[in-house]
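Work Package 4 report. The design task specified in the project plan requires that, given a folded chain encoded as structure tokens, an amino acid be chosen for each position. We show below one input record used in the internal validation round.
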């Protein structure tokens, strides 16, 4: 079975609707720019907060670690969502935790 060129692909309704296969985060990058963002979220509710984070650590387009914990417990009721340089954020949360 031979691969179809981009001119021979069957009609794809997602492509005709403007979907180009890129995420909203990467769609507006300039040539040569890389997305290095992380996803963290905190949702408050009546009796607390739900924290969430992705688990991948990347360096440019290379995924360096697929299972990193980006949510760190600093105290019994204090948590931190980490993003940015993994070494720096780990050092900072360790410093606060053990201060």
């Amino acid at each position: 079975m031979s691969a179809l060129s981009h001119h021979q692909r069957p009609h794809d309704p997602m492509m005709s609707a403007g979907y180009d296969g890129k995420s909203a985060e990467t769609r507006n990058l300039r040539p040569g720019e890389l997305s290095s963002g992380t996803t963290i979220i905190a949702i408050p509710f009546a009796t607390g907060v739900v924290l969430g984070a992705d688990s991948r650590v990347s360096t440019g387009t290379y995924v360096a670690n697929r299972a990193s914990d980006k949510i760190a417990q600093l105290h019994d009721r204090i948590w931190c969502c980490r993003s940015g340089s993994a070494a720096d954020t780990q050092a900072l949360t360790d410093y606060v935790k053990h201060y």
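The first strand starts at residue 40 and ends at 45. Validation will be extended to a larger panel in the next phase.
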